[in-house]
Amino acid sequence: MSDIRSVHTHCPYCALQCGTRLTVERSGVAVSPSDFPTNRGGLCQKGWTAPALLETPERLRHPLVRGTDGELTPVSWGVALQTVATGLQRIAGESGPEATAVFGGGGLTNEKAYLLGKFARVALGTSQIDYNGRFCMSAAASAGTAAFGLDRGLPFPVTDLARAGTILLAGANPAETMPPLMQHLTRAELIVIDPRRTATAEAAALHLQPAPGTDLALALGLLHIAVTEGRYQADYVHERTTGFDTAWTRAVSWWPERAEHVTGVPVAAQRQAVRMLAESERSYVLTGRGAEQHSTGADTVGGFINLALALGLPGIEGSGYGCLTGQGNGQGGREHGQKADQLPGYRLITDPATREHVADVWGVLPGTLPGPGRSASELLAALGTEGGPRALLVFGSNPVLSAPDSAAIAERLADLDLLVVADFVPSETARMADVVLPVTQWAEEEGTLTNLEGRLLRRRRLLTPPKHARSDLHVLQGLATRLGQPAGRFPTSPREVFDELRRASAGGAADYSGISYERLDAGEALHWPCPAPTVPDTAESDTAGMVAHPGTPRLFLDGFAHPDGRARFQEVEHRGPAETTDTRFPLWATTGRLPAQYQTGAQTRRVPDLTEAAPEAFVQVHPDTAQRCGLDEGLFARISSARSSAVARVYLDSSLRTDTVFLPFHFPDGARANLLTQPARDPRSGMPEFKVSAVRLEAVPEVSA
Amino acid sequence: MNDLVIVGHGPGAHRLIDQLLRQGYAGRITVLDAESRPTYNRMLLTSVLEGNLGTESLTLPRHPDAVRVWQGVTVTGIDRHRRLVRTDTGQEHRYDTLVLATGARPHLPEVPGLHDSEGFLVENVTPLRTLDDGAHLARLAESSGRITVLGGGVLGVETATALNARGLAVTLVHAGKHLMDRRLDPAAGRMLAEALSGRGIGVRLSGHPREYRPGALTLDDGQEVAAEAVAVCTGVLPETTLARQAGLAVHRGVVVDDQLRTTDERIHALGDCAEHDGLPTESSGAGRCQADVLAQVLSGASPEAHYPGTRNITRLKACGIDLVTLGPAEELNSGDDAEAVTLSDPARGRYARLSLHNDRIAAAVVLGLPTAVATMSQLHSAGRPVPADRLAALLGTTPARHTGSGELPDSAVLCRCNNVTRKALATAFGDGARDVPALARATRATTGCGSCTDTIRRLCRSLADTIPEQEDAA
């Protein structure tokens, strides 16, 4: 056999996309970290154990269709695809194309994300497409676009952080969620804003521990101090920004003592944070999900961007604002049309010029493209309701665990006439499906991803997929042709899809047109935008005179992406969480991630080493709080919110605030943390309020027995 | 259409309008404001005195044009029968709902020489209530280079520290035996005075002014305090004249119920002019809270909303002095049924006194303990219990994550990123992995974030120490 024995590729999990080398050995696939700039030879336990996924005994090996007996039964691909196509056609025929919907994921390659968006708009003709990135990047994306005219998680290479003097991490916990990133943060003094004393907080020079849901008040307070202590960079603000005065009319009322009262962060610590940021030679402000996953998420990020702008950080080499993207392709996934309001190239679906351009690439009339649809949690909440979608196709996502108020979401999914899930393991959502389509996974396929710094990366194939698995691209073509589309409109070769994506993105914010597999394979470090070279009018017809665009590692150095080149301050005001604690639900619950699990755990809970490291759900409780609720280490607690209840084992942790408990969200069934979370959404971005729910705790004696 | 008329446009009224609009209030809103400048935040006057903010930067956001704001217009009377208010400019404004947000005015002591024959304060003497007062005081301070602050309550202490921070010579004259004596116990008051003296502020206690003449303030004991300029910070009085004339119930402030309603159901009052449950509104936080409740009631967003009263929390705004008082001061010594926690460290200027009932704060003073100031304020504000480890909570010490010290247990995870225990490392070491790179190859420890590298190196050394013995024994 002349099978490939070894490839350079990237980890299948988070947005750091650590470089790895995979080798086929006698004992199976071995992984070793490569000296890639983002991970510099580092890898966390998830990355080291990722090959176990390739051999998981729970791999879906056959297409499944739910039979009349209610059981999922293996069928041929032909039968499965025809079942889906017939169902979609019937539902569209009865209720119109808007009754069919698509839910994508931030882990899909650029090629899949792009083709999925095209499939929804062209093959289904529906506006109802969104993705789990709403739960992840949407708040920072809205705020970043408003401030800078363009959203790219980090508008500078990760490696720039290694030279920083001070880094403010607002609601980010990379030491546990993205460990190799910490190698770039060793020189800087860290300021960590987190209600919990996380591993990152422990590594920080200064830990600000606000009450859950008060991050924006803290951001406003820090801006207030920056101005009253004269740290404000008047020349920068004058020359490179607009809107400071309006933003200030809100921050003026957030004097440090008031911010202290609302957040619980001592005035002295607030002043120290501003001093550290202002006095350091190179400072960065970075946000993570802790600041973003709120019903005020976009405003909260706006508050931190305002602070960065007042201190004169963005758009200067060696300083800036950025957001630490979560999912593997959280960046690329939001740029190519999975989002309800966007078309490829990170452009608004409502923009006539964009519609014309994309329709031309797709070979359809602009008028046939639908308008903007519902955002993720709106979409999920509408499923199976009057006027809502009756059919849903899920690719690369597990909303039964990841969506807020998940008991209600499970009911919505159950009310669908047709639920189709494409996955390679039987996720909790797949188990509810009417049709399950087994797809390929990372080391079995080619493609590209865009990492947290906007750099394009190649995912490479090492293994031949199992016999019955098909790539998502094949699945989309198979469905599209059954829905009457020409096969050529839905190519199955990743390279071919990428070449089409390049054309579709040309001229957009995230312009990939100058990027090719050849350039990436040659080892070029290409950050978007990277437009194709244009032929000068006077040039000869050959391409010798054209210089390839080098990509854009650092954005905004010459100006921000608004027409006037200026960044915008945002007028933001603290509103607090959508619900408050009371005598029935006196505690705050906040949710987050563990080092050994990824997202809903659909993959990582099937890796034995990871299951051993993080075997089960738990609720972290301060010992005082536990005692008051009659709980103790190792016993089970029922955690209840106004929505529903979850049961989890109690872990005591005296570093927690006494008013706050913490639950990881990776675990299924009755321990789903999202049983507790609220349906409240950020009006600007659609981000749900994952980080704050009012709850109470009770002992569950029968479970502990 | 419902006509809402609001008298006064301080931060409380401003917040009310902001919240009403956010909740989609559909009625017409008219504001009659006696001041002739856009609304500003009074709480920041001391920042202006410090010299950190220009007066113009205190301005609060402008309301949308649909809100009609009349500036420089004083309401002279309320006709409850015809439901209208009259102004000094001869206007009449009809209302369906009227909100009194008339605020408070400075209380000025009866000291001979302080007022002229027409009852106005003499030159070089000013209260600190309005933006004009603040600007006037800043000018006075600049021109004389020194200033006397009369009154050692919260505003007096804040004003003295702000002017001191500006670089002026400041003397603080207070009639009480210790500073902020309405809120602090003597020990805290003494330490506060020491903190001020340490900055070069002259503090004169038990100082009852007998007479003022330009340049000097004579006290009861005959001593004289140089006083080219005087800031009078001797408290405020709720501005209740209109309510009184209109026949509404007025005690110290305009009496309101839990929905901020006066004795006329069409008239509400909020902020410094109002009195709820026998207590005048004393903080801007209480005023904001009242505005939020009233907005919910008037907008219909939550017609049953009620104002629960605001816990008494006084946080000093003085850069570098962390001081908060919680609850009524008299509760600080409330006898045997309370748990009293006292921490006194005069040498470092740290002091705390907590009076606890059922683990909750009945009253407290915390000074010089920045973390405890924040923590205790939040716990009191939410009515939550104080942590069982009172001392750790007061000192703001970070609890250790791992209990026990000395030898790490075998199960201790030394590399978090790769979940490598001490036992796994010791085993690998025993199998021949004798340095960090070899242990990394064998166990993956240090290959994540790298922060455990030093720990692993130390472990290597300590394991190496045990090796010869084992090998000898073997």
From TrEMBL, chain A:
<keyword id="KW-0411">Iron-sulfur</keyword>
<dbReference type="InterPro" id="IPR006657">
    <property type="entry name" value="MoPterin_dinucl-bd_dom"/>
</dbReference>
<dbReference type="GO" id="GO:0043546">
    <property type="term" value="F:molybdopterin cofactor binding"/>
</dbReference>
<dbReference type="InterPro" id="IPR006656">
    <property type="entry name" value="Mopterin_OxRdtase"/>
</dbReference>
<dbReference type="GO" id="GO:0022904">
    <property type="term" value="P:respiratory electron transport chain"/>
</dbReference>
<keyword id="KW-0408">Iron</keyword>
<dbReference type="GO" id="GO:0051539">
    <property type="term" value="F:4 iron, 4 sulfur cluster binding"/>
</dbReference>
<dbReference type="InterPro" id="IPR006963">
    <property type="entry name" value="Mopterin_OxRdtase_4Fe-4S_dom"/>
</dbReference>
<dbReference type="Pfam" id="PF04879">
    <property type="entry name" value="Molybdop_Fe4S4"/>
</dbReference>
<dbReference type="InterPro" id="IPR009010">
    <property type="entry name" value="Asp_de-COase-like_dom_sf"/>
</dbReference>
<dbReference type="GO" id="GO:0003954">
    <property type="term" value="F:NADH dehydrogenase activity"/>
</dbReference>
<dbReference type="GO" id="GO:0046872">
    <property type="term" value="F:metal ion binding"/>
</dbReference>
<feature type="domain" description="4Fe-4S Mo/W bis-MGD-type">
    <location>
        <begin position="4"/>
        <end position="56"/>
    </location>
</feature>
<keyword id="KW-0479">Metal-binding</keyword>
<keyword id="KW-0004">4Fe-4S</keyword>
<protein>
    <submittedName>
        <fullName>Assimilatory nitrate reductase catalytic subunit</fullName>
    </submittedName>
</protein>
<dbReference type="Pfam" id="PF01568">
    <property type="entry name" value="Molydop_binding"/>
</dbReference>
<dbReference type="InterPro" id="IPR050123">
    <property type="entry name" value="Prok_molybdopt-oxidoreductase"/>
</dbReference>
<dbReference type="GO" id="GO:0016020">
    <property type="term" value="C:membrane"/>
</dbReference>
<dbReference type="Pfam" id="PF00384">
    <property type="entry name" value="Molybdopterin"/>
</dbReference>
From TrEMBL, chain B:
<feature type="domain" description="NADH-rubredoxin oxidoreductase C-terminal">
    <location>
        <begin position="314"/>
        <end position="368"/>
    </location>
</feature>
<dbReference type="GO" id="GO:0016491">
    <property type="term" value="F:oxidoreductase activity"/>
</dbReference>
<feature type="domain" description="FAD/NAD(P)-binding">
    <location>
        <begin position="3"/>
        <end position="277"/>
    </location>
</feature>
<dbReference type="InterPro" id="IPR007419">
    <property type="entry name" value="BFD-like_2Fe2S-bd_dom"/>
</dbReference>
<dbReference type="Pfam" id="PF18267">
    <property type="entry name" value="Rubredoxin_C"/>
</dbReference>
<dbReference type="InterPro" id="IPR041854">
    <property type="entry name" value="BFD-like_2Fe2S-bd_dom_sf"/>
</dbReference>
<dbReference type="InterPro" id="IPR036188">
    <property type="entry name" value="FAD/NAD-bd_sf"/>
</dbReference>
<dbReference type="InterPro" id="IPR023753">
    <property type="entry name" value="FAD/NAD-binding_dom"/>
</dbReference>
<keyword id="KW-0274">FAD</keyword>
<dbReference type="Pfam" id="PF07992">
    <property type="entry name" value="Pyr_redox_2"/>
</dbReference>
<dbReference type="Pfam" id="PF04324">
    <property type="entry name" value="Fer2_BFD"/>
</dbReference>
<protein>
    <submittedName>
        <fullName>Assimilatory nitrate reductase electron transfer subunit</fullName>
    </submittedName>
</protein>
<dbReference type="InterPro" id="IPR041575">
    <property type="entry name" value="Rubredoxin_C"/>
</dbReference>
<feature type="domain" description="BFD-like [2Fe-2S]-binding">
    <location>
        <begin position="414"/>
        <end position="459"/>
    </location>
</feature>
<keyword id="KW-0285">Flavoprotein</keyword>
<dbReference type="InterPro" id="IPR050260">
    <property type="entry name" value="FAD-bd_OxRdtase"/>
</dbReference>
